[in-house]
Q: What sequence folds into this?
C-alpha cells in the first residue's frame, strides 16, 4: 500500500493527548479554584438549581406583530427587540441570571432564580410599568430538590449512552476499537465541560442536549474512520498496522473536513441570526463539532492503536510463556 511520508498521525499520539490535557487542565483548574473559593464550579442554570418560570402575554408584543404586517418588519427583529427590553428591566431589578424566550403563540417565557411572592410581584410591576398591560398565564417554581434530581438523571443518561456506544463499537469491530471510541467520547464530554467552565456558559437541559448531539456526531465520524481501517486491514494484513491507520485517516480526511465545514457554516449562521435565546446552545454545538472532529481523527484512532498494540504484546507474552512451559515438559 502507498506510503505517506508526511502524514503521520499515530506517531504523534502523545502530542494530541498533551494538547487535550492542557486544555482540560485549564478548565478543571478553574473548577477547582471556584470550589476552593466556595463558588459554583459550573454555571448551573435554573433547570438544575431550581427557579421560577413565568408565562406572560404582553399587549405591546401583539401590537408590534399587528404593525409588522403593514411595515414589513421581520418577526425576528420584533422578538429580539422585545427580549432586549425585558432583559434590561430584569437586570435593572437584579434578576441577572434569567432566560427569556418568545414562543410561537406570541407568549413570553421568563425563567429566573427562585422568587418569593413579593419578588415576583415586584418583577411584574416593573414589567407593567415599562411595557404596559400584560397577562400572567402561568407561574410555577422548580425547587432545588427537583433540579438536583434532574442533574442526576442527566448524568445517568450520559453514562448509559457511553456504555451503549462502546458495546456497539466493540460488537461491530473489536475490543480495541470500542476502547478507542469510549476514550474519544469521554474526551469530548470532558472537553465540552471544560469549555463551559472556561467561558462560564450556563449548564441547563439545552446544554445536555448539545452534548448528546455532539457525541452522536463524533461517534459517526469515528465509525467512518474505523470502517476504513478495518477494510484496509483485511486487504493488507501484512502491512504495518500504524501505517494502515495513517493511510485510513488520510483517505477519510477530505470527507471529514468537508462535513465539518458544512456543519460549522450552518451553526455560524444560526449564531449570527438565531437570536440570543439559542446563542449559548449554538456556541456549545459549534465548539463540540470542532472537538468531536478533532477527537475522531486524533484521539479515537490513536487510543485504538495503543489498545491494539497492548493486546498484541499480551498475546505474544502468553505465547512465549506457553512455549517455555512446553519445553520444560
A:
Amino acid at each position: 500500500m502507498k506510503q505517506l511520508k508526511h502524514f503521520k498521525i499515530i506517531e504523534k499520539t502523545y502530542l494530541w493527548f498533551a494538547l487535550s490535557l492542557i486544555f482540560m487542565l485549564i478548565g478543571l483548574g478553574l473548577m477547582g479554584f471556584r470550589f476552593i473559593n466556595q463558588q459554583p464550579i459550573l454555571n448551573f442554570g435554573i433547570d438544575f438549581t431550581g427557579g421560577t418560570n413565568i408565562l406572560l402575554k404582553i399587549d405591546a408584543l401583539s401590537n408590534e406583530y399587528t404593525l409588522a404586517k403593514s411595515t414589513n418588519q421581520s418577526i425576528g427583529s420584533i422578538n429580539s427587540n422585545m427580549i432586549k427590553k425585558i432583559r434590561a428591566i430584569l437586570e435593572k431589578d437584579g434578576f441577572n441570571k434569567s432566560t427569556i424566550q418568545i414562543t410561537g403563540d406570541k407568549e413570553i417565557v421568563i425563567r429566573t432564580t427562585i422568587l418569593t411572592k413579593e419578588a415576583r410581584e415586584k418583577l411584574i410591576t416593573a414589567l407593567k410599568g415599562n411595557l404596559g398591560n400584560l397577562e400572567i398565564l402561568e407561574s410555577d417554581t422548580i425547587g432545588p430538590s427537583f433540579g438536583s434530581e434532574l442533574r442526576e438523571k442527566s448524568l445517568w443518561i450520559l453514562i448509559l449512552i457511553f456504555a451503549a456506544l462502546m458495546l456497539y463499537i466493540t460488537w461491530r469491530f473489536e475490543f480495541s476499537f470500542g476502547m478507542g471510541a469510549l476514550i474519544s467520547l469521554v474526551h469530548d464530554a470532558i472537553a465540552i465541560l471544560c469549555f463551559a467552565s472556561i467561558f462560564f456558559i450556563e449548564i441547563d437541559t439545552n446544554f445536555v442536549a448539545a452534548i448528546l448531539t455532539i457525541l452522536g456526531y463524533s461517534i459517526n465520524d469515528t465509525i467512518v474512520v474505523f470502517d476504513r481501517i478495518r477494510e484496509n486491514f483485511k486487504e493488507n494484513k501484512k502491512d504495518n498496522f500504524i501505517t494502515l491507520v495513517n493511510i485510513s485517516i488520510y483517505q477519510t480526511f477530505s470527507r471529514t473536513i468537508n462535513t465539518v465545514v458544512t456543519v460549522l457554516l450552518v451553526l455560524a449562521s444560526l449564531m449570527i441570526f438565531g437570536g440570543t435565546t439559542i446563542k449559548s446552545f449554538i456556541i456549545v454545538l459549534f465548539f463540540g463539532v470542532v472537538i468531536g472532529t478533532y477527537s475522531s481523527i486524533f484521539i479515537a484512532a490513536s487510543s485504538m492503536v495503543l489498545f491494539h498494540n497492548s493486546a498484541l504484546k499480551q498475546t505474544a507474552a502468553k505465547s512465549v510463556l506457553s512455549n517455555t512451559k512446553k519445553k520444560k515438559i
The first helix runs from residue 13 to 36. Residues 10-38+146-319 form a domain with the Multidrug efflux transporter AcrB transmembrane fold fold (CATH 1.20.1640.10). The beta strands are 43-44, 51-58, 99-102, 108-112, 134-142, 202-203. The first strand starts at residue 43 and ends at 44.
